[in-house]
Amino acid sequence: MTTLLLSHPACLDHDTGDLHPECADRLTAITRILEHEDFFYLSRDEAPRATEEQLRLGHSAAHVARVLGAIPAEGWHEFDSDTVASPGSGEAALRSVGAVIAAIDEVLGGRSRNAFCAVRPPGHHAGRETVEGFCLFSNAAIGALYARKVHGLERVAVVDFDVHHGNGTQDVLWNEPGTFYASTHQQDAYPYTGTMAETGPEGGCVVVNVPLPAGTGSDDFRWAYSDLILPKLRDFRPELVIVSAGFDGHAADPMAHLRLQVADFDWVTRQLLDVAAECCQRRLVSVLEGGYDTRALAACVASHVRALMDA
Ligand SMILES: [Zn+2]
């Protein structure tokens, strides 16, 4: 069994306008680096389109209709000053959710060991009824609910190492039993949520937030996982681990102020793979979130995917 790479050319057609940090060049840089011979043994496939029924696992029917109905025939629609849609955005968003769904089908079906979804728009700021932070639909959270409700898993974990708190994922999963959401993120940065006091409701999602002060580097990042997140993840005994893989915690990233290095993303990936090996026959699905310095992003994704292939 190999690692599966899912993407789709439509993800390049989500046009956010000039000078927007969440741009198609990000995905082009990732695609280029994954063409290196180191990645020859990746299994590669095009992401299918998610159905509206699948979107409704994480969003209300009215919200899904509102978002898809706002996609412009030409020009741009601004959901807010950060989050814009172009004519290609609807297809890109459906392929992004569809990638996660297909990855889960392949990994749970035993046809791939694990998977990485190289897609955009990202998803972890999209809430049950909200579009924000460059995100249209809640890719990872929909995946968790798909694994729970369609595949019948009892416990699904989402672990989010993007430098921003995944307020959308947390919102979608909040009242959902059998789910776990853990996040490391920069404290007092967008979206200004994700305190340690947010632990999830009785009978709902188990939430573990670890905000890290600006300037945090490798040692404290690794401590947050070793001492706070991984023990709780092991206690939860996930049957599938979904990773919200954002690489904007890298020191070179222009959007935030953590000081992580490529080796930290390799390390955290291998830690999560170890938990997946202990708890759930190594079943892990990773989906791209942020990462805005294209050189650092490509290097981080390469190390992340290499770790997945070594599992
Ligand atoms: Zn981010």
Written account of the structure:
This protein is of the alpha/beta class and 311 residues long. 37% of the residues lie in helices and 15% in strands. The protein is built from 9 helices and 10 strands. The strands form 2 sheets. Strands 2-1-5-10-9-6-7-8 form an 8-stranded parallel beta sheet, sandwiched between helices. Helix 8 links the parallel strand 9 (240-245) and strand 10. Helix 4 (89-108) packs across helix 5 and helix 7 packs parallel to helix 8. The longest helix is centred in the first third of the chain and has 20 residues, at 89-108. The chain is globular. The N and C termini lie close together (10 Å). The chain binds zinc ion (ZN).
Sketch the major β-sheet: 8 strands, parallel
Number of helical regions: 9
Count the strands? Answer: 10
Uncertain spans: none
Mean pLDDT, nearest integer? 98
Strands of the largest sheet, in order across it?
A: 2-1-5-10-9-6-7-8
How much helix, percentage-wise, in residues?
25-40%
Class by alpha and beta content: alpha/beta
Q: Cofactors and ligands present?
A: zinc ion
Give the terminus-to-terminus CA distance.
Answer: 10 Å
**H and E order:** EHEHHEEHEHEHEEHEHEH
Morphology: globular
Percent strand equals 15-25%
**What's the gyration radius in Å?**
17 Å
Concise structural overview:
By secondary structure, the protein is of the alpha/beta class. It has helices spanning 24-33, 52-55, 61-69, 89-108, 139-149, 167-173, 218-236, 262-279, 294-310; strands spanning 3-7, 43-46, 77-78, 84-85, 114-117, 156-160, 179-186, 206-212, 240-245, 284-288.
